[in-house]
Amino acid sequence: MTELRLEGVSKQYGTDAGGTTALAGIDLTVRDGEFFTLVGPSGCGKTTTLRTIAGFEEPTDGTVSFDGTPMTGVAPEKRDVGVVFQSYGLFPHMTVAENVGYGLRFRDPPEGTTVDERVAALLELVDLERMGERNPDQLSGGQQQRVALARALAPEPDLLLLDEPMSALDARLRESLRRQLTQIQSTLGVTTVYITHDQQEALAISDRVAVMSNGRIEQVATPQEIYREPSTRFVAEFVGENNVFDGTVRTRDGDRAHVDVDGTTFELAGPSLPADGQQTSFCVRPTALTRGVEQNQLSVTLETCEFRGEHVRAYGRWNGTAVVLQLDTVPEGEAVSVGFEPAAAHVVTSQ
Amino acid sequence: MSLGDRIAADRGRLSALLERHVLWLTALLMAGVLGVMLYVPVGVVFGNAVLEDGVPTLSHVADVLTDPFYFGAVADVFADPLAIGTHLGSLAAWLGAVSITLSLEYPLPGVDLPVPWLALETPGVRKGLFGFTAYQAALSTVASVALGLPAAYILANYEFHGRRTLRSLTILPFVLPGIMVAVGFYAMFGQTGTLNTLLGTVGLGPFAFIETNPLAIVILAHAFYNAPLVARLTVAAWESVDVRTVETARSLGASKRRAFRDVVVPQLAPAVLTGALLTFIFTFMTFPIVLALGGLQLATVEVWIYDRIQRLDYTEAATLAILETILSLGLTYAYLRYESAQAGFSQAASRPTRESLVPDLRTTLSPRRLAIFTYGLVALVVFVGPMASLVVGSFTDGSGVTLRNYAFLLERQLEGESFQTLPLPAIRNSLVFGVATLVIAVPMGVVLSVLTVRAGRSGTVIDTLAMLPLAVSGVVFGIGLLQGLVFGISLPGGWRLQMTGAVAIVVAHAVAAYPFVTRNVSPMLANLDPAMVESARALGASRFRALVDVELPLVVNGIVAGAAFAFAISIGEFSSTVILASGSESYTMPVAVERYLGRRSGPAIAMGTLLLAVTAASFVVIDRVGGRADR
Questions:
Q1: Mutation target vs A (from B458, B535, B537, B545; most A CBs, 10 A cutoff)
Q2: B22 touches chain A (CB under 8 A)
Q3: CB contact, 8 Å: B535 with chain A?
Q4: Fold for the domain defined by A4-232
Q5: CB–CB of B581/B592 below 8 Å?
Q6: What is the distance in angstroms between the Cα of B280 and the nearest Cα belonging to chain A?
Q7: Is the pLDDT of residue B630 over 50?
Q8: Closest residue in chain A to residue B534, using alpha carbons only
Q9: Bridge partners of B355?
């Protein structure tokens, strides 16, 4: 199928002086058949990136290429991409079947099938076999979303682009739909770029994830790496809950380092630790900051506790720094002593 | 590759190229059409005013500006703008002489009904033609707001049978031909009109309402037109007031009255002001109503321009036209600035509930309800009266039921000379011009909508330039077309750009009508989810295909509504038609009505009734056709 490559893609709105930068040089390779997710807070440039790939926006600088062919100046209708929008963009004056068949007015159905067969096959793929003659407004949100997916897939696009396709649906429906989506994607093997602001969703469905912030890519990695080894402070704080501490390296000896944070010294273990005297930041997940660990003790003054069923999430302060903990039970008293293993800390760059 | 293949490939490439650029090609075509139809005529008028034998001159403009006949007391200021002390002195002297008195008056002769009368005694000041035009526009604005606000209050706050219908009907005066309204007022308030007939049954009258106080009748006719506009805008604002904001104010300690003043009024004020400003602009450029009801003794700028043209004094007419256009453009610009400064009316999250108007007998007899019913009676006289009188008046004369008026029309048709105004050609012309206007104005308006909605900021500029017809009066446009295109313009290479009166009339109508198509289509187009067009394009549709397949089918209601407006405007257009039709056989129904308006108003009233019937019938047809397209 298709490998997608973005090289130095930037997007500037308005003139140099009063303009805004939506994308500040994006480099990205999405492998053939990969389920790739762009995640980030609203306004980080993820939708602009998708619109640039689809051809609705021309980059101010840089190139987008499909399988090595530059797409500069190629109109959206010539790019062979399937797009599903957050609002679905279904045509209200056409039936479900007409919606799904619309792309086949411009591209032939796969060899050996007629348009009608192709439409029927797609409706079956998304479990909407008997809905063909309905109007889109007679369907539920989840069904509309599946029609939009079937419509995008009908002309066999090289690339499937999904812009927050589930954000209008409720949590339970979202989970079942995204299982269905990943199944369809792996069956068809179509290269897919998925946009979301929901980091949990990104971790759950993707082969690889790119975390974006302020028009830049912070990190590209597998979901496990993103969660366990965030490379920047932003990624550490955006993906899942995290405790980030800023300090200075006192001593460093091989894969061990002692870091001074506000007068308290913590021991860190792991590869690629910073050198003596350097400013550094490291993060510890709430799950790793627990009672009963002897090393790296800190006494947290509690502010609020949330009972979450399987566990308790506790918010408090240590030396003025906000700290979040995961506990088994609601603690008694106003403070709790916790610690973390030296290897549980992960160093991040502050940018 | 064989030759045939190459030709096919070339053809394919050409059609792809055409399709890709079809919107820009239509834009160019559109600019060309607008240039010839709109900017050339206006430019010709402008040239007339500031060119003398090909040499630029401001002397005509200066002559008009310093002539007290046109600018009254202000002419002195224009004549000698630096003598500020003298001007301030005369202003102070004038202000010192103003007096206000309150007295009891008996306005109806022979009736013992005292009315407290607030008299504003001002020393005579020469207003001049422009001053008078502004003066009557200001009075008309006050009358329209005064008549429109109670209607808005009732429509927004009370529930009764036919409320929704009534609310929709507020659009109707807008599409009624001005000359028909004028004749309706004749039928209502004339010597043998309905009001005098009614008063006669109780032994009063007859009164010569129109002859003794033409200004009052003209202002009432303007209110007939514009009060529904004020009401319409205000009701929309009132319905978008979020009732929770009022409830919040009440819970914070504001009384009902205080909450109304602090929360509701500030949200209504912009709408009322918008209505007032539009009313002022419309009545400043008023023409058929003043011409028919007041004549030259009550001349506004527009009527005077028309009179100059009749006397073939084109230079003076053009100079006046330019000054009038500058003023109305300034007002329109102020309006657009003001309109864009306000946030659009958002739909209220929770609308206020409406009280029933007649819940039970006791409430019905409360002072507030009685005031509402009194207003209803006044509204009946002002709004329904003229139209009903038009129909009734066509079948009656001073003494009783008669078919004489229609007999006159029939006789004129059968025995009239060809130079006379005949009823049938008028009806035929009106319908032909109406259809031709549709054919031109609807595509123009739709293309303009598509271009402006999608073009972003540059679209606003195009939009403003293309909305010029709203600010240029029909009479001005009429002269421009007459002098520019009917008399002909020499082009380089011995060509001449020239068109006949009938073609020019259609052009004038189309130019007046297409902004209404655009105004109806643009909001619907702008509200479409952009994801629909983008989905279509990602699926392989070109921009043009996406327009045809997705956008146009979804705005078909707006197109039909725009078409109805365009047709109604063509049927009712008077100002430019009367100029372009003079001395030719391309007169329309409104022009015929005006020509029949002689010593006896009977034939004109009958012709006006025919105009009403044709207008109504066309609306039914368009509604049917549109309803079918909708399905």
A1: B535
A2: no
A3: yes
A4: Rossmann fold (3.40.50)
A5: no
A6: 39
A7: no
A8: A56
A9: B158
Do residue B541 and residue A83 have CB atoms under 8 angstroms apart? no
Mean pLDDT confidence for B298-325: 81
Q: Looking at the predicted structure, is the pLDDT value of residue B167 above 80?
A: no
The residue behind tokens 């405007």 is B569
Residue of chain A whose alpha carbon sits nearest to that of B552? A93
Give the lowest-confidence range in A40-44, A75-79, B95-99.
B95-99
Here the tokens at position B504 are 């020019």
Q: Hey, is the C-beta of B541 within 8 angstroms of any chain A C-beta?
A: yes
B539 and A92: CB-CB below 8 Å? no
The domain segmentation of chain A, as residue ranges, is: 4-232, 241-348
The minimal CB distance from B529 to the residues A89, A93, A105 is found for A89
DSSP string, B323-368: HHHHHHHHHHHHHHHHHHHSPP-PPPSSPPPPEESSSSHHHHTSHH
Chain B hits for A100, Cβ within 8 Å: none
**Burial tier of A314 (Cβ tally within 10 Å: 0-12, 13-18, 19+):** buried
Chain B CB contacts of A90 under 8 Å are: 532, 535
Q: What percent of chain B has pLDDT over 90?
A: 4
How far apart are alpha carbons B466 and B481 in whole angstroms?
A: 17
Judged by CB atoms closer than 8 Å, whether chains meet at B531 and A107 is answered as: no
Domain boundaries, chain B: 58-72+126-386
Distance from CA of A224 to the nearest CA of B (A): 33
Short-list B353, B358, B378, CA closest to B160: B358
pLDDT tens per residue, range A97-143: 999 999 998 888 888 889 999 999 999 999 998 999 999 989 998 89
Nearest one of B178, B188, B251 to B217, comparing CA atoms: B188
pLDDT tens, residue by residue, B516-557: 888 888 878 888 888 999 999 999 998 888 988 999 999 888
Please tell me the predicted confidence (pLDDT) of residue B112.
66
Tell which of A50, A102, A144, A195 to mutate to test the B interface (max B CBs under 10 Å). Answer: A102
Q: Which of A8-22, A258-272, B87-101, B607-621 has the lowest mean pLDDT?
A: B87-101
Which chain B positions have a beta carbon within 8 Å of A81's beta carbon? Answer: 538
CA distance A81 to chain B (A): 6
CA–CA separation, A235 and A40 (whole Å): 9
Using the Cβ of A165 and the Cβ atoms of chain B, whether some distance falls under 8 Å is answered with: no
The DSSP letter of residue B38 is: I
Optimal mutation site among A47, A51, A85, interface B, most CBs of chain B within 10 A: A85
Computed over every residue of chain A, the mean pLDDT equals 90
Which ipTM value was assigned to this complex? 0.84
Split at pLDDT 50, 70, 90, the class of A66 is very high
Q: Which residues of B touch A149 (CB under 8 A)?
A: none
Residue A109 touches partner B, C-beta closer than 8 Å: no
- Alpha helices, H only, A24-66: 46-54
Over residues A169-196, the mean pLDDT reads 90
**Structure-token pair, residue A49:** 């990136």
B110: left (phi over 0), alpha (psi -120 to 50) or beta: left
How sure is the predictor about B106, in pLDDT bands with cuts at 50, 70 and 90? low
CATH of B58-72+126-386, one of 1.10.390.10, 3.40.50.720, 1.10.3720.10, 1.10.600.10: 1.10.3720.10
Chain mean pLDDT for chain B:
78
Q: How much of chain A, in percent, has pLDDT values that exceed 70? A: 98
Average the pLDDT over B411-429 and give the result: 79
- DSSP letter string over B243-273? HHHHHHHHHTT--HHHHIIIIIHHHHHHHHH
Distance, CA of A2 to CA of A8 (rounded, Å):
20
pLDDT in tens, A113-123: 899 999 999 99
